[in-house]
Amino acid sequence: MNTQVTFGGSPVTLEGNTIKVGDQAPNFKAVNKDLSPFDFSSLGKKIKIISVVPSVDTRICEFQTIRFNEEATKRPDVVVLTISVDLPFAQKRFCVANSIENAIVVSDYKDLDFGQKYGFIMKEHRLLARGILIIDAEDTVRYVEYVPEVGSHPDYDAALQFLETL
């Protein structure tokens, strides 16, 4: 994988398949906040934003999740999905405390299926790197951002401006 990512300024090894614009979005399985199975294919023929965060219990991840939850109310034709390896119990507590009602929040803690198929696993930490993906209604990857420094914000404006072109 060629994507260079740092965590606290130190390089990390990303594992999994690098996802690129034009790729067909792989289906993946994760876990919902109530411990039920989540299947990406269940989102159907909608535009999807996948907001990838290391942990909802950090300041930037919290901001990113809240921001995309707010954006989800503006476009009913778009599904916003946040994914981390936090335990579903922590995600549920976070969502209740922050009124996350519009975005779907799922965990990749069990099998790292998303992380492997989309290339977001930080080997050294067994966490997901930060990023944003936009997938069109035909499940084609249209936008990819692997944030170069995990402790930095993604480019929200660029992602949201790109979303307006779909």
Overview of this structure, please?
With 166 residues, this protein is α+β, with helices and mostly antiparallel strands. It has one domain (11-163): 3-Layer(aba) Sandwich (Glutaredoxin). 23% of the residues lie in helices and 28% in strands. The protein is built from 4 helices and 12 strands. It has helices spanning 59-72, 88-97, 113-118, 156-163; strands spanning 5-7, 10-12, 14-15, 29-32, 37-39, 47-52, 78-84, 104-107, 121-122, 127-128, 131-135, 141-146. Strands 5-4-8-7-6-11-12 form a 7-stranded mixed sheet, with helices on one face. It has a 3-stranded antiparallel sheet with strand order 3-9-10. A two-stranded antiparallel sheet has the order 1-2. α1 (59-72) links the parallel β6 (47-52) and β7 (78-84). It is globular and about 40 Å long. The mean pLDDT is 95. InterPro entries: Redoxin, Thioredoxin-like_sf, Thioredoxin_domain, TPX, Tpx_CS, Tpx_Peroxidase_subfamily. It holds the Pfam family Redoxin.
Largest beta sheet: what is the strand line-up? Answer: 5-4-8-7-6-11-12
Between the first and last Cα atoms, what is the distance in angstroms?
Answer: 28 Å
Shape: globular
Rg: 14 Å
Helix content: 10-25%
Average per-residue pLDDT, rounded, comes to 95
Overall domain count? 1
Going by CATH, the architecture would be: 3-Layer(aba) Sandwich
Give helix and strand order, one letter per element, not per position. Answer: EEEEEEHEHEHEEEEH
Structural class: alpha+beta
Superfamily (CATH H level) name: Glutaredoxin
Question: Helix tally?
Answer: 4
Largest sheet: 7 strands, mixed
Strand content: 25-35%
Q: Indicate the CATH topology.
A: Glutaredoxin
